[in-house]
Queue: 2 jobs
Job 1
Amino acid sequence: MAEAEIGVIGGSGFYSFLDDVTEVTVDTPYGPPSDSLFLGKIAGRSVAFLPRHGRGHHLAPHRINYRANLWALRSLGVRQVLGPSAVGGLRPEYGPGTLLVPDQLVDRTKSRIQTYFDGEPLPDGSVPNVVHLTFADPYCATGRVAALGAARGRDWEPVDGGTLVVIEGPRFSTRAESRWHAAQGWSVVGMTGHPEAVLARELSLCYTSLTLVTDLDAGTETGEGVSHEEVLKVFGENISRLREVLFDAVAALPANEDRACRCTDAHQGWDLGIELP
Ligand SMILES: [Zn+2]
């Protein structure tokens, strides 16, 4: 089996910039991930890219098999994951082109399986126990530092911290919802950050979210509200420097065996009932 140490779950704009990409298909007890995984090297580090929505963006946020995606990455040897995503800004100062590295998460999704430990037997007959993990700090402290430093190194002053609220989608927010999100003090709104982060934690993976603001959310401005075309346009304008930041962040991450963050002991003595890949 091919191996990788770092995973990047992002848009299809990333793997195509690497030389010598090896495409591998991985199956999991939860079914297939969003797409093939693309293995390449960045600064001597082995990286696996996974297009979150699949090639051609055919998977809506609520249809993504998040469990399969994280499981597949871990089965290749990945222990640290960077998760870039497009978001709406909930404050006027977080306009299009803002890079925000959140430190908190609010789950407003409705229909997604968000645990591996639900007592449901796996195809091989093993049965995961019910496990309740600490999730007070949903993101890897080391990964956040790497991402922030990488952005600053590219003269892209990031917002250090903030709350990502994840909505079910695929529709965008109403003005009332958007005003409510902003009134809570939340920073940005997206559709894919959950359950990606919590499933990573359940697999003891380091997970870092990098959010690129592509629009001001519906209640934050006075225009027509966000459109998908607007999101794609701003994302396209920023993808090359986001790629540079991701590459630099990959290079700045510690070796997997040198991780000193709390993600590595996420299970804190729980008997998982199953072997992680
Ligand atoms: Zn970590």
Job 2
Amino acid sequence: MQLETERLIIREYEAADVDAMQRYCADPEVLRYTLWGPNTPEMTLNFINMAADYRAESPRMKYEVALTLKDSGELIGGSALYITGFNGEIGYTLNRSFWGKGYASEAADALLAYGFAHHGLHRIFATCRPANAASAGVMKRVGMTREGRMREHLWAKGQWFDSELYSILVHEYAGKQKA
Ligand SMILES: CC(C)(COP(=O)(O)OP(=O)(O)OC[C@H]1O[C@@H](n2cnc3c(N)ncnc32)[C@H](O)[C@@H]1OP(=O)(O)O)[C@@H](O)C(=O)NCCC(=O)NCCS
């Protein structure tokens, strides 16, 4: 899978991406609200291999993809799309140097378009920790609606976590494209 947006090429990971990924996969500021990490280079390589296994599945239901700058090819982060029935879930993580420039929203929007058009999804959702205003900001910017808070639905790192849940339906997305 490869998608092109105004400023990004969204492509499959390659083994050579480890170094660029390590620049954010071991950054405590990037990992502040994530339930994964910090990664060692070996863990990041395992993740790339896992992404390659997803790519080999048919029909493909899981995408872990690299976000790269169209003009330089630099890898600036990663995004994900996971499909269950008519529902999809998206996620995103960026190297801190590239925050606040609209890249996550650009990538999320491309994954919404792909999920609705290519997979015929009806609803795509995303979740974040309640304090993660940047992640919620992406969900709002791509037109998702807040559904509510899932209370203590995740157990990780020795504690329960709440999540904010946002989603967008296929007809809402189509309406947004026309507007
Ligand atoms: C979440 C993350 C991917 C956002 O990336 P980004 O490219 O900076 O986001 P965007 O520039 O597309 O911003 C989208 C919206 O969120 C807002 N936003 C961005 N950072 C924000 C912050 N720290 N606080 C409040 N709002 C913020 C932007 O202003 C924008 O809203 P607008 O359309 O009203 O201007 C990035 O902060 C990140 O990688 N965080 C660490 C990993 C992570 O937490 N991932 C999500 C796990 S659920």
